[in-house]
Amino acid sequence: MDKLSLAYAQQMDKEDPIASYRARYIFPQHNGTDCLYFCGNSLGLQPKSTKEAIVNELDHWAQYGVEGHFKGDNAWMYYHKLLTPSCARLVGAKESEVVVMNTLSTNLHLLMVSFYRPTETRFKIIMEDQAFPSDQYAVESQVRFHGFDPADAIIEVKPRSGESYIRTADIEQIIRAEGDSIALVFFSGVNYYNGQFFEMKRITDVAHEVGAVAGFDLAHTAGNLPLQLHDWDVDFAAWCSYKYLNAGPGGPSGVFVHEKHGNNPDLPRFAGWWGHDEESRFKMEKGFIPMQGAQGWQLSNAQVLSFAAMKASLDIFDEVGMDALRAKSLKLSGYMIDLIDSIEGGSFFKLISPRADTIRGAQLSMLTQDGVGKKLFDYLTENGVICDWREPNVIRLAPVPMYNSFEDVWHFVDLVKKWLVENA
Ligand SMILES: *Cc1c(COP(=O)(O)O)cnc(C)c1O
Fold first, then answer.
1. Residue from 134, 135, 139 whose mutation best tests the ligand 1 pocket (most atoms within 8 A of CB)
2. CB 190 near ligand 1, within 6 Å
3. Which CATH number fits domain 53-318: 3.10.20.30, 3.40.640.10, 3.40.1030.10, 3.40.50.300?
4. Per-residue pLDDT tens for 270-288?
5. Ligand 1 centroid vs 219 CA: distance in angstroms?
6. CA diameter of the chain
7. CATH class name, domain 6-48+322-423
8. Spatial distance between the Cα atoms of 5 and 391, rounded to a whole number of angstroms
9. Where along the chain do the CATH 3.40.640.10 domains lie?
10. What's this model's pTM, rounded to 2 decimal places?
11. How many CA atoms lie within 13 A of 353 on its CB side?
């Protein structure tokens, strides 16, 4: 069968063992049909089960009022624990190593309070060039908070000139060169801009070799690729739940603290009552006693409505499993790359994400020609594509294995070809 034909895409969908999950999500509409939604890296689609999950908690509240903390199914006092087993599976952690709390940028600060502890000689942070702005701001403000100058303390690893992503060997080389001046190595799992999946284990190993801490922002990674945070010996990580994890706008954040740090009383931390020993929490006494493991980093009681949405979504991840999602993801994104490569005269539309499976997730970032790209993007939008535009000239596309189809990908590339014909 002609690989470029619509029939081939339809055949791929027929052979896709997890194709049925698409029907569990709500697609925005365009002229009465589903949009071609490729923005799951920004805000994942709503599971059909989410509304009922939230309404259940509203009913719980209506029925019990304040007693809902201790009464009925899923009493709110323990609500965060409902999310723990799924989160542990998602990131390859022990249950004691993960907790869901707050939102991502807040958690990055809380974790840096514990894990960025600069001294006069060991104060540097190594991170990627073009990190997500919130991470840049968080890191800069932490550095200043400790009395250092970001210009001295932050070292960004860049791609080589003419290359669009960073070589792991360059990261390793810079970490070894800076050696014992490094306090923290802090990378994303998957870079939000070019979709590069960093080799987290190699980065962690070399950070430890020079005596530094290794932390990761997994906003674009959790729910995108299978992870093994415990085995990779990552020190800490945090992620949000509204991108690949489909927990809804502003959804809560997950946190990982490796078990070797979880019960270390010497680590400074900013404390709150929900991190305090559960048995004595409601005695309301002076003297903070942290819970064991990641739970001891909690500040506040559970954000029940958003946790309920997250639970509804993670239940689906538990059903499908990350391995099945990743297997489809590689096929789906590989298919998109093949189709894009087949666009004649398509040099204005250039892949800047890594091609190799081992160093990318679902997202493909396309560099467009100056002055042309925005017109293409607007055409796509008018024709029912939802993807995203990053200044100055990048279109980001995330074919998401949970709900995107091969046919979605085919129609998308077909639109690009049509635009090219009309504008040639
Ligand atoms: C999406 C994203 C954020 C957003 O943080 P919030 O606190 O949830 O608004 C932060 N960092 C990275 C790397 C992201 O991709």
1. 134
2. no
3. 3.40.640.10
4. 999 999 999 988 888 899 9
5. 6
6. 73
7. alpha beta
8. 33
9. 53-318
10. 0.97
11. 30
